[in-house]
């Protein structure tokens, strides 16, 4: 399947996807990497991998919807069949998201439904949680609220601070996201309008 990726930052999750593809473990085509930050490391990774890139500056648009509609029009024009948010730090307007619901996934650094939104590692530490993790989920208009597809878990160690926890979680993310994309590639994962299903089994 043809996949577009949106990222706002360094792109370590994108790097993990590209590495999985290089190893022959991920039979997908990346048709576009887009960002709201022209300086995003993710765009440099895409350029190095000869993947078309797109950087749209939100300041060039009158409002969020105008930006999102233009971005998603370009994603559609790329021929992408799936859209992966890998560290894309914007909330997408429901009107732009609509046609993509069911074909857009996100990786979020918490064990959803816990800690939707930002500062997830800090919130898990402050709550005294014994476990933390990452979730890949279908994206819906509800922020970090779509059906969870798969999760990676790790034990919070005594003395972990926010940075250490984030750094220990990242390698798990780098295994989780490619694994979910493999399901997409094998057409074993779909959205049935309200839940994620894998080979017919409700996740
Ligand atoms: C990851 O922790 C991801 O879970 C969250 O933002 C971070 C993106 O990191 N959405 P990177 O840009 O992929 O390195």
Automatic annotation (TrEMBL):
Keywords: Purine biosynthesis, Transferase. Its EC number is 2.1.2.2. (6R)-10-formyltetrahydrofolate binds at residues 64, 89-92, 106. Residues 2-181 form the Formyl transferase N-terminal domain. It catalyses: N(1)-(5-phospho-beta-D-ribosyl)glycinamide + (6R)-10-formyltetrahydrofolate = N(2)-formyl-N(1)-(5-phospho-beta-D-ribosyl)glycinamide + (6S)-5,6,7,8-tetrahydrofolate + H(+). Pathway: Purine metabolism; IMP biosynthesis via de novo pathway; N(2)-formyl-N(1)-(5-phospho-D-ribosyl)glycinamide from N(1)-(5-phospho-D-ribosyl)glycinamide (10-formyl THF route): step 1/1. This is Phosphoribosylglycinamide formyltransferase. It comes from Rhodanobacter ginsengisoli. The gene is purN.
């Amino acid at each position: 399947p043809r996949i577009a990726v949106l990222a706002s930052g360094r792109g370590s999750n994108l790097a993990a996807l590209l590495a999985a593809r290089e190893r022959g473990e991920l039979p997908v085509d990346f048709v576009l990497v887009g960002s709201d930050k022209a300086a995003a490391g993710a765009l440099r990774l895409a350029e190095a991998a000869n993947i078309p890139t797109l950087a749209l500056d939100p300041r060039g648009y009158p409002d969020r919807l105008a930006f999102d509609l233009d971005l998603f029009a370009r994603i559609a024009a790329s021929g992408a069949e799936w859209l992966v948010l890998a560290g894309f730090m914007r909330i997408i307007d429901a009107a732009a998201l609509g046609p993509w619901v069911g074909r857009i996934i996100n990786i979020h650094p918490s064990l959803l439904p816990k800690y939707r939104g930002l500062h997830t590692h800090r919130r898990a530490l402050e709550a005294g949680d014994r476990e933390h993790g990452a979730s890949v989920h279908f994206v819906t208009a509800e922020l970090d609220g779509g059906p969870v597809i798969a999760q990676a878990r790790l034990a919070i160690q005594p003395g972990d601070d926010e940075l250490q926890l984030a750094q220990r979680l990242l390698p798990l993310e780098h295994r989780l996201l490619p694994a979910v994309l493999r399901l997409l590639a094998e057409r074993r994962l779909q959205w049935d309008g309200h839940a994620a299903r894998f080979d017919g089994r409700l996740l």
